[in-house]
Amino acid sequence: MEEETYFPDTDLDLSFTSTTTDRTFPCSSARSSLARSSLTLSFNESRLSSSTTTTTTTNITPLHHRKWDPRWSAIKAATNLSSDGNLHLRHLKLIRHLGTGNLGRVFLCHLRDCNNATFALKVIDRETLSNKKLSHVQMEADILSMLDHPFLPTLYAHIEASHYTCLLIDFCPKGDLHSLLRKQPGNRFPLAAVRFFAAEVLVALEYLHALGIVYRDLKPENILLREDGHIMLSDFDLCFKADMVPTLKFLRRQRGKSKRNCFSGGGCFGPVAGSGEEEEVFPEFVAEPTTAFSRSCVGTHEYLAPELVSGTGHGNGVDWWAFGVFIYELLYGTTPFKGASKESTLRNIASNRKMKFPQAAEVEEAGIAEAKDLMEKLLVKDPRRRLGCSKGAQDIKQHPFFDGIKWALIRHYKPPEVVGGVARKRGHVEHVKRRRWFWKAHDCLMIRNRNKGSHSYSLLGSHTKRISASNYYDYVHNNNPRKNA
User: In this predicted model, which residue has the larger pLDDT, 102 or 152?
Assistant: First the structure.
């Protein structure tokens, strides 16, 4: 196995010396030399101060919306116990290899003597990378140090030692959205789930754009699922930064006006004379990097915008194009311009070919018309006419597809119950409870029927009602996987 050749011992003591030298001990491979380096974690100063001259606890509290997270408490405890007040690599214990990306490998780890504080450690060997990829590594580290958002990862520590760069970030135990999508009936999510995931991704993109960051790598594989079922964007090595000047605009809108009077002829339930329209002024805050420009052709080919494929230069609009492709894939299990090969896919994107929707085999879900309209406005090949390019997420939030969402409370919304998702384990518990309930009810009814003989009960009807009340979604998918497809 690849993990075993890289880390044959998962309980490694990675601190063999207390010096700060970059020297590595002789070993069988350059990769395994990571275990022989004398590394010290250097904290992002905006998150956690490790200065030994600090006399108050406020200076060592992370300046972050999740400052009460147990992970920060565990890190603080480890630094307090350290002889020099710093967190060293010997405080970390590697558990297993999570995956390999374009730049490096990611490992699950936790602080020693604190199994509850788990992290993901991204390890990058700079000696194996070209200068272009080294700039991507630096870009990702810089962007991670800027982030402070519930749907974006937290950078707990930045390691620079020898020829390795290591980033200590959040671990998302539920995997990525692409893997979850492939577990769904028909490889597609129900519309309610698509709306939930799209709304959270939209909020994350809005935050990035407010910082002048163009993401350029939106796809289900880069959307991780936290333990609570909410999303977290990952992989920022393909981003680029641009100047962004927030503006406050005032919009004028017409709205109906009616005067109601309980003591007049109109009564309390209808308009009376004098009704009409009035003009209201709505303030609108816009923080969108509309001047962003780059000529680099990077990203995943099925998600590339036409202006990125042509190489004529692109800006913030590539993220809103990718957002439309993202919604399409969640709804239909494929991307809208996918061809038989990579080259044919790129030709379809660059051509004047219009996007087509698959023919619905059954009656379409309520709200699918609004979803199609949103995708059509996002997947406009001219970025000047594409929804979101001028006013950013504000325009997209106002689309009817997102009607009813209270954006300020979105982080507290309950994640959707989907096959293989967070609710699946709860569904298993419910199944056990239903089984226990069934036999308990069976025993009670047998005793009552034996004693009285005059009552008849429908066990099947009661059982069905119980299933419907407890976890109808789980029951439907266990009995007919294609019914909600």
Answer: 152
